[in-house]
Amino acid sequence: xxxxxxxxxxxxxxxxxxxxxxxxxxxxxxxxxxxxxxxxxxxxxxxxxxxxxxxxxxxxxxxxxxxxxxxxxxxxxxxxxxxxxxxxxxxxxxxxxxxxxxxxxxxxxxxxxxxxxxxxxxxxxxxxxxxxxxxxxxxxxxxxxxxxxxxxxxxxxxxxxxxxxxxxxxxxxxx
Length: 175
Known about the structure:
globular, mainly alpha, Arp2/3 complex 21 kDa subunit ARPC3, single chain, 6 helices, 175 residues
């Protein structure tokens, strides 16, 4: 009987790299949902998931980065009760844009990543602001909350850079 899937469909998947990224995904979700929700400045907690999506897009390209970010977005939406599909739609889009920009316009170094992560965090904060303003009403305090969330998330975005950079450069051919 003939298989529906071609033989080489999954041949490019490296199990060692996949396992390391799975551990990274779980560590990011635990950090976001347990640790970072407790670190509040003026009732604003930082977000690390948009920065992780940007890092995955920069280091894994326009296919695997958004796929990883889709899984990350699904689990992020499950953790945040007020969101239905916000992160599921936003994180793969951020990852794809970061992959495109990293492929054609910027390098994959730390400072370029921090600029892209700051942009991703600002877009996420603006999306949350617009979603809240559409549901309730707009207030100027919401803008300061979005700015504070973006700035408070940047140190954690810096910490999210190193694992994908190391995993993407590692050679797993002997495994």
